[in-house]
Amino acid sequence: MTAPSIHTDELTRRLYANDASVYEEVPVGVAFPVDEEEVLHVLRYARERGRPLVARAAGTSLAGQATGPGLVMDVSRHMTRIMACDPDAQRARVQPGVIRDTLNRAAASHGLHFAPDTATTNRCMIGGMIGNHSAGLYSVKYGSTRDHVHRIRAVLSDTAIAEFGPLTTDELKRCMERPGLEGRIYREMCALLEKHADLIRRSYPHPDIVRRNTGYALDQLLSMEPFTPGGPPFNLAKLLCGSEGTLALTIEAEVGLVPMPRHRVVLVPHYEGLLTAVESVADAVKQDAAAVELLDRIVLDATLDNVEQRRNRFFLEGEPEAVLIIELHGEDPAALQKEAHQLRARLCRSGGAYAVPVFTASEDITRVWELRKAGLGLLMGVWSDRKTPE
After folding, report:
1. HSE, side-chain direction, 13 A CA sphere, residue 240
2. What is the percent of the chain where pLDDT is above 90?
3. Is residue 131 packed enough to be buried (19+ CB in 10 Å), middle (13-18) or exposed (0-12)?
4. DSSP label at 117?
5. Helix 274-286 × helix 333-349 angle, to 10°
6. Digit-coded pLDDT (tens) for 68-110
7. pTM for the structure as a whole
8. How many CA atoms lie within 13 A of 105 on its CB side?
9. Residue 115: partners with Cβ closer than 8 Å, 6 or more residues away
10. Nearest alpha-carbon partner for 125 in 91, 150, 96
11. Could you give the 3-state DSSP secondary structure of residue 162?
12. Residues with Cβ < 8 Å from 204, sequence gap 6 or more?
């Protein structure tokens, strides 16, 4: 196997100096590994030269996480295979460069899908979603990426390959006895958790907060066996979710798939004030909504000058300061319709909405969500004298 080329020309380095954030850092080089052997080569190359390694996919991080002054490793070009899709187990094995929508097209033939649904699903990749612990539109129903990742095959900083997945207490003890960096990771992680368990439980954000990108998910590990009797099996793959590539490099992941919703309905309440819209979110969540998203006037106005998204404004009535997009799921279409219209009446009566169009046709629902998903890109294109925060 030939070693992958490390591109150090000015053009390539400049192209990888930016991501979707306001930050810019020119890397020393860029690599496009084909498989795990080439990932190992890239890591050795970086270690020998004392350079940090920045793993990069696409479409998830917005705060400069995919930029850095070291060596960028882009998995989006070659490491894009769906290794397996098992409808019986409701699992899929993928390389980190697999696009989320590509995985879902493959899973759809089995009536399944990978549930985390970011605004960038037509380009975001599973490796990035793991690193960023992505959540998205349906997080109130399905949770976030960590909830759907079962195993991760990863490269450690010493170039060893490790597989992280659920372990029984006996298996965990055997992992702690392993030589090398992998065994040390298990030993020191368990010692850290035992020493600081009370502080972690007391100080970490409340677990009801669905997406908590506030450091490493040590509290998740504490909720597992053997630290919480009766909890789920100990699984370091959960810790890698949200670690932004700082702990290990994902080269393959086993993710869970869930059944696609049988019936859907979308309500779009319109509000004359932003605060009134925000106050209505709690009512929608109490209705067991699958998704609740807010679009304010800034985003809505950004769609006016976009030819494609102007067509997707079909549902707007008047000039609202904000709208909510609420999606409900159900097994019985008649019961779902009744539920939707009860919520509509409540939003109009006590929620302050002046209009609440309801949609059941798949094409209409798709167009409503397309407008929501276009928001980030449209905002990035809004002209301003400066975008960098001072």
Report:
1. 31
2. 72
3. buried
4. B
5. 140
6. 899 999 999 999 999 999 999 999 999 999 999 999 999 999 9
7. 0.89
8. 8
9. 138, 141, 142, 143, 148, 258
10. 96
11. strand
12. 212, 214, 218, 219
179, two tokens: 């030589």
**H helix intervals, the chain:** 10-15, 36-48, 100-108, 126-132, 139-142, 169-176, 180-203, 218-222, 237-240, 274-286, 297-302, 307-311, 333-349, 362-373, 375-380
Least confident of 130-139, 178-187, 205-214, 289-298: 205-214
Decide: helix, strand or coil at residue 99: strand
pLDDT exceeds 50 at position 331: yes
- Which structure tokens are listed for 334? 């008649």
Q: How far apart are CA 298 and CA 376, in angstroms?
A: 11
Which contacts qualify for 77-84: CB closer than 8 Å, 24 or more apart? 77/32, 78/32, 78/33, 78/34, 78/35, 79/33, 79/34, 79/35, 79/127, 79/251, 82/106, 83/252
Closest CA to 60 of 119, 104, 140: 119
Distance CA 21, CA 25 (A): 11
Q: Measure the CA–CA gap between 57 and 131, rounded to whole angstroms.
A: 10
Q: State the Cα–Cα distance between residues 260 and 270, nearest whole angstrom.
A: 28
For the purposes of burial, counting CB atoms within 10 Å of the CB of 357, is it exposed (0-12), middle (13-18) or buried (19 or more)?
A: middle
* Cα 171–chain centre separation: 29
Tokens of 156: 């450690």
Summarize the confidence of residues 221-230 as an average pLDDT: 96
Task: Say if residue 3's pLDDT is above 80.
Answer: no
Give 86's strand partners.
91
Query: CA dihedral defined by 14, 20, 23, 26, rounded to 10 degrees?
Result: -20
CA dihedral (208, 214, 219, 221) positive or negative: positive
CB 251 within 8 A of CB 155: yes
